Amino acid sequence: MKPKIVDQLEREIEAVLAELFDQPRNSPLPMQPSPKTLHLMAKAAATVFETAVENRPRDEGIRPD
Questions:
Q1: What is the percent of the chain with per-residue pLDDT over 90, rounded to a whole number?
Q2: Above 80 in pLDDT, residue 43?
Q3: Is residue 13 in some structural domain?
Q4: Of 44, 64, 41, 40, which is closest to residue 53 (Cα–Cα)?
């Protein structure tokens, strides 16, 4: 995937995670993640997705673009 797309995906995932952790819950989490932790979580999720996209053509027998 193009770096610009990966960067955008990371930013969007990070925003969604921040919203998720800001929501009140019936059973609160033991801690709220720091902005750095949210950033790392988003980068990890984007990396997993990027890897899946890159491996998909090989898994399906299709040549990548």
A1: 58
A2: yes
A3: yes
A4: 64
